[in-house]
Amino acid sequence: MDPLTWTGSVGIVLNPIFFVVVGLFAVMLVIQFVLSFTAPPPSITVNPDGSAMSSGGTIDLVGRINSYLFLGLLGILATYMFSGIFTPYGTGGIIGEIGVRLLPVWIALIITFALSMAFKRKLGLYGKLFDSVVGMIGFAIVMFWVFVAIFVAFDLVITHDPLSQVSGMKNKVPGTPLRGAEDGEYAHYLLGGDNLARDVFSRVMQGSQIVLIIAPAATLFAFMVGIVLGLPAGFYGGMFDTVLSFIANLVLAFPVILLFFLLVTPEIRAAGIDFGFYMWRVPTILASILFIFPLIFLVLLWNSRYFTQPSKNMLFIGLTVVIGGYLYLALAWDADPFGLISIDQNVLIVFVAVVFVNSPTVFRIVRGLVLDIKTRDYVAAGQTRGEGAWYIMLWEILPNARGPLIVDFCLRIGYTTILLGTLGFFGLGLESESPDWGTTINAGRRLLGIYPHPAIAPALSLMTLVLGLNLLADGLREESLKD
Amino acid sequence: MGLFILRRVGVMLLTAFCLTFVVFFMTNLYPNLEKLAKTEGNFRMSDEAVTSYLTKNGYLEPLPVKYGQWLGVLPGFVHTDEDGKTSGQCYEQAQVVGGGTVDAERDVARFCGVLQGNWGFSTVFKESVNTILSKRLSLTGKLALAAFGVMIPLALLIGILAGMREGSRTDRSLSTFAITTSATPEYVSGVIFIAVLASGAGWKIFKGSATSAMDDATFANFTLPVMTIALYGVGYIARMTRASMAEVMTAQYIRTARLKGVSFGNIVMKHALRNALIAPFTVIMLQFPYLLTGVVITETLFNYKGFGWTLVQAASNNDIDLLLGCSVVAVFVVLVTQLISDIGYVFLNPRIRIS
């Protein structure tokens, strides 16, 4: 097998065109930037029928040319990506073959977008997202990684086992063929090999799974903590609020990096309160406190609404306590009575640390929103009707605070992803062979000057995911402000 | 105003007290102490030997007492062994004071904690923590100053240009840039910078290591670390400035100025800017804690042996005194910048200041 070039056979024709378009685009961008300060504003002429017409002038022309160049650029990139699907293996180049491996992801993305666009008027805020270009781009990037993570679980996207080493592939550049690849084995390392001769492409794709499970889950838990504590703090005020706000400020004033170095160490996992018959270790202590909040939230949610219908109330609360309690025992205490679910203690402490760092900020946001919303008339009306305090908080104030909370949720997943990367970068928590992006960057940075590819691939992946989440949050903010 | 500042300072001191106590508690957990004893003694130490080492050095005192001694509000720890030889926390300092002699009677009641300027002794660098910190902090000061010097003007410029005509093409392209940089943490931008600008695979314009910049910062070895730190902050500050600027530009008094016929440049520079910069000031001040994380990552990546690098070394080598020293500095940097941001906001904003 020959080594793959980046762009394969289509590149022979397209590469010169590509570079010309990139060069032109760059020049035009500079011209546009300069023109935006110097060019006269567009002149407006009034037609005889009373309508006004703006003649865009040079700046508009340049802008339009730029849009076409940008579209052309996207078109060429798409050709690189998708040409491999129609040509035999080995001629599509690295980009083309990656496009082939990602085929299930592309199909899933197209289906998602087609369905969402078709029914967007019936889908509430989610549907409105498809009115904003920024939001759509962000959503596409995020869903790309979500689908990658899903399909990796079905063994679809990855080409090699992310942990297995292949002799002779150490630090090889992208597109290197395997020596003596057997039948049925993928013949190339698409993005090269790392310093332990593992496939960078497969590791990056597998890594998305770890990030996309931990980051949203940790953010969700942080939101549960922030909501359960922030609602009463804002609603009642008083001592409760003062004490909680002080604690929240305390955690916020703690430099994040220091907290990680103190909390995510092997020693802390050994420390704890010794009861003689049971060693209550620090990760378990923190997890048992933080993981109880979703349960409290759900029980309060059901009870405040259905306490007048005891049978329904008992059903919901019973289900919550049984299922939630089971998960709580399994995840926080590592004491699953059936031995089905357990969480690695390394992952647990990383998870807990990230939840702990995020909760106070969510608390402050929720508290601020409640302080604002509780002065509204509908809250006073609810109180006059004799509704319970928790009913007002959970079923009246919280739904009305959803806009800013959803936006912050997206941003916070991105921030959590960055935090996870930071932990991985310092080799804290997760095992050193774990394919998550932070750990991979950490492993790759030692040889960065000579073999940059093992670190670049996870770095760009992390960046695109966070960028997607930020854009998604921007689009959601824009759309939620419209109503 | 005076009362407000006084209250804020009070809260800040209380917070500092709580935070240093938490850090002290976490660094003095038994497994940490055990590891310390084993690295200082030997790794095959028996449990009794560990206990005796820890007792001798005062690590097994009750936590509040130990904290008081470390802080310097309780007399330093003194240990007398079977031979009647005394040793203790303050003795090293007492030797200096007493000209080489230690007088047990006189020195027993000495206070020598952080408040007296005795920050302890680093087990890794074999130096006093005071010396290490002052040296490393000045190095980091250089780096952070350069990063701020790049970050703030750039961020304000982008924010103002984007916010003065909300929704224009300039706004959209600058906002895209800002969002992209705020999605690029230091360990991503640093890796990309090194790979593209300082490796054999890309252009070799700069150096991928900043070790030589500690003594002699040049364009080649100092640019990449500074840019790495600056870039992540730029996006956030620029977006805040943009939002604040866009809000001011829709205000009534700007419309009035425009109707009076004031030129656009004058409106931006003389009317809008002063009000638009109040919010970014707070944000810039609150950027210091994030800068701290950035400094730690960047110094590790570029091997620049400043404060952040020292923090990593202290934490990974279980150097308790040094880690405590670093933590005190870090906590104070965060708290003081918060204080300045709070007071500055009130001071700058006439709507709050006058009332």
3D shape of chain B? globular
| DSSP strand tally of chain B | 4
Terminal Cα separation of chain A, in Å? Answer: 58 Å
The run of helices and strands of chain B is HHHHEEHHEEHHHHHHHHHH
What does the average pLDDT of chain B come to?
85
Strand content of chain B: under 5%
| Quaternary class | heterodimer
Strand order of the largest sheet of chain A: 1-2
- Largest sheet properties of chain B: 2 strands, antiparallel
How big is the Rg of chain A? Answer: 27 Å
What overall form of chain A do the CA principal axes indicate?
globular
Q: How would you spell out the order of helices and strands of chain A?
A: HEEHHHHHEEHHHHEEHHHHHHHHH
Q: Based on helices, strands and strand pairing, what is the structural class of chain A?
A: mainly alpha
Topology:
The complex is a heterodimer of chains A (483) and B (355).
Chain A: H1 8-38, E1 43-46, E2 52-55, H2 57-86, H3 93-101, H4 103-118, H5 124-128, H6 133-153, E3 176-177, E4 188-189, H7 200-236, H8 238-253, H9 256-263, H10 266-270, E5 272-274, E6 279-281, H11 282-290, H12 292-306, H13 310-332, H14 345-373, H15 377-384, H16 389-400, H17 402-425, H18 437-444, H19 453-480
Antiparallel strand pairs in A: 1-2, 3-4, 5-6
Chain B: H1 2-27, H2 30-40, H3 47-56, H4 63-71, E1 78-80, E2 86-88, H5 91-97, H6 104-107, E3 121-122, E4 127-128, H7 129-164, H8 169-182, H9 186-197, H10 219-249, H11 252-260, H12 264-276, H13 278-302, H14 307-316, H15 320-348, H16 350-354
Antiparallel strand pairs in B: 1-2, 3-4
List keywords for this structure.
heterodimer; A: 483 residues; mainly alpha; two-stranded antiparallel ribbon; 19 helices; globular; B: 355 residues; two-stranded antiparallel sheet; 16 helices; 4 strands
